[in-house]
Amino acid sequence: SKLTNLGHLEMTWRSRVHFHPLLVRILHKSRLRYYGKPEKKMDMPYQAYFEVADGSGMMSMVLWNSLCPEWYHSMKVGTVLLLDKYTIKTSYPFKTHPTPGDSQMKRFATIEISLNVRDPPTEISIIPEEMVKPEWGLPEVKYRFITRSELDDLPNNHSCDVIGLVTFVGRAERARKREHSEDFWLYRWAHAIDGTSDQPFILELFATSQPDVFEHIHPMTYLVCTQMRVIQDLTENPSRTVYLTTSNESQIFITGWHKGQPYTKDAKVKNFIQWMKSQSEADQMKKTVIGGYYPFPRPPDSFLKY
Fold this sequence. Notes:
CATH 2.40.50.140; 8-stranded mixed sheet; 32% strand
């Protein structure tokens, strides 16, 4: 019936209490954040944010508390949502922002959509993809896939998406979030090749909110990582190695999880699949390695250089 759009919301939100329903597509999804503290008695102190868009532009949407376990896994990149009885708040200034696949898209950064279990209880509906009409004008999900041959020329902190065949995966390791803290990040190293270079992608994969994928990254799986950040060693080290690390909005997919994902239409993904069809599986399997300690970045080969 009566819908509003994100551009109209930004212009009118201060003068309204109730808003018309919104029809949006999810373009990015963050990891789930737990913000519980021992002294605060909250049932479900969870939060996740998404970047959602319609024909007028893109805005952040925050999912709060007990709505997270109920909705987080159903809200995928590409999912179309009908939202009603949501609230609008000024944006949290310190959150990270993904790099949009479409650089022309307008971003509404001053406000965000807040979805709560009460005051008021938000009504969320997922619209199946086959029922989405072109006249709604919802943008498609766009990606920034790169090949291994393009990686060395990219600047530090550049955001990109990659696809490759896993040739090495290390054991899960832990790093303290802060010194003397009891909280740890869980991560593992992986190598993936795409046929465009002799060198693999070196990937530092932190555990996202996808434990079922993170634990099952094996050699010979097709690995897709989105919203990765380029880490270039900016010193004058001739043996410098460029690698990619996950960001707050990274999503990881392995063989068995690709069906129906929006990136399957991407030209570079199709090129990779074509290259894989020309490869001998037995030859590639001989080159694969799993587990073990992986010191990276590698120390210099002599104490003098160290």
